[in-house]
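Quick one: structure for this chain?
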Amino acid sequence: MSGPTKAMSVITVAALVLTTAYTVALGSSGWLWFGWVVLGMVTIGMAAADGSDSTGARRRGRPTGP
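Got it. Here's what it folds into:
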């Protein structure tokens, strides 16, 4: 995982903790949970993009070999 992806993961977990604390203390807020879900999806997207190969696409064509 690269630095920005790791930072985004930490922010997402912190937002989950804060959202849960808000829900326990003041009651549920649909918009707050919706925002956290969007943040989580963006984080998953960043992690998936970070895990793909560096060219962004697999090489096609005939295999080269002996």
